[in-house]
Design brief:
Number of strands: 10
Oligomer: single chain
Mean pLDDT: 92
Strand order of the largest sheet: 1-2-3-5-4
Order of helices and strands: HEEEHHEEEHHHHHEEEEHHHHH
Largest sheet: 5 strands, antiparallel
Helix content: 40-55%
Structural class: alpha+beta
């Protein structure tokens, strides 16, 4: 049984906790919606327990109640990808993720549910506000735990939910060009002329962009690695980052995640000041994790190229999910920062055949 938000019961929660080794009974709970997801909906359940130790709270994730957003989640395989991540990949990587008590889906959704560890007092990052150098560095170094364990692993090509890394870019380009006019109408007046121009050129240069990729360098990539999808605990000496929202996971160049995060997670002035140091730390940690034959010059070139990583998510997602005030603010901030990142990196060269 996959319960909906209104069907979660004390008996069902007790069953799931016991299946995960907790000898306790859930005798009651309260619930509240949390997070700012566009396609998913998260609910925190505060638990009343009897008979043993167990978590004081858990988080349930469901499809968005908005029909357009949930249809998008099915169309883009977002729900299937996230469930399969917890079922098949979580134990094969070392990136910090919440413990998963339950993960099931009907077909490709929208009926699905995840029951996850509640990581409070860690708080969700804020894409609009951005983050400082310390948090950004912690977030990028955490990516080594996703990229290094399955670097170049051919078994990734046997997982259909990850998509075909050799073909998926073409379909993405078609969708980008289809949605770009609506995006430009909504956000173009708030972008500089050169920002809007590079966003437009990216959609028209798919083949040149694809040919600039080294196909031998591939790993699982989160693809939507941004502050809103991180839970950050700054109660200790250093920030601790836990990564959620695996509904876009695919296979590709690992610097995609690095460029995507730094491009929009920091304000441009802060990014320019600290990005090379952060990328050098990331590369150093890759080497320490056993990655061979990938020098810093190639890493930096891939990083420059990855300044385009946020373009598709920004343009396409903004047109396919329910429009909200915060959503528009977030997509505009991403468009401004990602496009400026590409300009700063001189990444136009990757768009020329």
């Amino acid at each position: 049984m996959i319960p909906g938000p209104e069907e979660v019961s004390t008996g069902w929660l007790t069953e799931k906790l016991r299946e995960n080794g907790f000898n306790c009974d859930v005798t009651g709970f309260t619930q509240e919606r949390i997070g700012t997801g566009q396609i998913g909906m998260c609910i925190r359940y505060q638990l009343q327990l009897d008979g043993g130790e167990g978590p004081k709270s858990v988080v349930g994730k469901f499809a968005s109640p908005d029909p357009l957003s949930s249809a998008t989640g099915v169309q883009l395989l977002n729900y299937l990808k996230e469930v399969r991540f917890y079922q098949l990949l979580q134990d094969r990587v070392s990136i910090n993720t919440p413990y998963c008590y339950f993960s099931e889906i009907e077909g490709e959704g929208p009926v699905f549910m995840l029951l996850l560890e509640d990581l409070a007092p860690a708080i969700q990052g804020d894409q609009l506000t951005g983050c400082d150098h310390e948090v950004a560095n912690a977030a990028i170094q955490e990516l080594v735990g996703l990229h290094a364990p399955l670097w170049g692993d051919p078994s990734l090509d046997q997982m259909p939910f990850l998509g075909d890394r050799k073909q998926s870019a073409r379909g993405a380009s078609e969708l980008y060009q289809k949605t770009f006019p609506g995006f430009a109408d909504r956000f173009g007046s708030d972008l500089s002329a050169d920002q809007l121009e590079i966003l437009r050129r990216f959609g028209e240069a798919n083949e040149a962009y694809r040919e600039s990729v080294d196909p031998s360098v591939f790993t699982p990539i989160h693809i939507d690695y941004r502050l809103d999808n991180l839970l950050i605990d700054e109660s200790g000496d250093r920030p601790v980052v836990t990564v959620v929202d695996w509904q876009s996971i695919t296979v590709g160049n690992p610097l995609t995640d690095v460029g995507y995060f730094l491009g929009a997670g920091m304000l441009p002035s802060q990014r320019r000041e600290g990005e090379e140091e952060i990328v050098r730390n990331y590369h150093r940690n890759l080497i320490a994790a056993g990655i061979e034959g990938y020098n810093f010059d190639q890493c930096w070139r891939d990083y420059r190229r990855s300044s385009f990583a946020g373009f598709s998510v920004t343009v396409v997602a903004s047109m396919l999910v329910q429009q909200t005030v915060r959503g528009d603010q977030m997509f505009l901030a991403m468009a401004q920062r990602h496009s400026q990142h590409a300009i700063d990196m001189g990444a136009e060269e990757f768009l020329v055949p």
